[in-house]
């Protein structure tokens, strides 16, 4: 397609506009004139609040989109999302345990949510080993089982929580927010997402081959079991490092890969990069809306769900599909 070479530059321009909007929008609006005048408060808001939040939104949006693309290719399932193997629900269990038993501090929330996400994917992989490891449906079913167990654990923890404080904190975490992002929080997430995302990008050819029949992939030189586990772990590390800081963010990992694939049906590394840029722009726009549409900040998963649900309905209703 002749327009294919213009897709990524156009997406990058939209992302740049979204970054500029994110830096300026909020309950304390900023303008170039404020910054050029040297206003101390404006610069403090920009550097302490807006820049870290914008960096996290770009990192989280791109990381979730990368992971969603990988899951959809790996499982040949157009509805696969980063929580397909229970990582998001596992992170919810970890964060809930932190809030309920350790006071919900920043460090314990992050560490236990990260541990919960990794534990969930480890359990899913362990369950899948008991079935047909060559069938991707086995991993999907294992993920559904782990997801159900994790959600049951979260409900039990909510039942045991103090309704005046702990219950509200657990509910707020599960709806996701970028409100508490600081400079101290972004560096570990950026490094983890950058490292894992970079490896996934380099492994794009092998990931595409994993979408084939296992015997065909093996004939083309792919160690199917080892590569599948490596890719799953990298994608899950990406998601776990994000949600352990931001809370749960829904639909970005489903929406961005589909938009990229609708625009560029050839797939490959170009579509993966396009997916990451689209995911970053979508999360930035959702975050801008979260802090400007109401006097109090709206949890971000509410807005991403409003963005993603109509698209999902339209996708289901379509007679044709990019996967056919």
UniProtKB/TrEMBL annotation:
Tell me where in or outside the cell this protein is found: Cell membrane
Q: List the keywords (alphabetical).
A: Cell membrane, Membrane, Transmembrane, Transmembrane helix, Transport
**Protein name as it appears in the record:** Iron ABC transporter permease
Signal peptide per UniProt: none
Q: How does it sit in the membrane?
A: Multi-pass membrane protein
Q: Which family does it belong to?
A: Belongs to the binding-protein-dependent transport system permease family. FecCD subfamily.
Name residues in a coiled coil: none
- The main location is membrane
Supply the InterPro entries for this chain.
ABC_BtuC-like, ABC_transptr_permease_BtuC
Spell out where the chain crosses the membrane: 50-71, 83-104, 110-127, 139-157, 186-203, 230-256, 268-286, 298-317
The species this protein was found in = Hydrogenoanaerobacterium saccharovorans
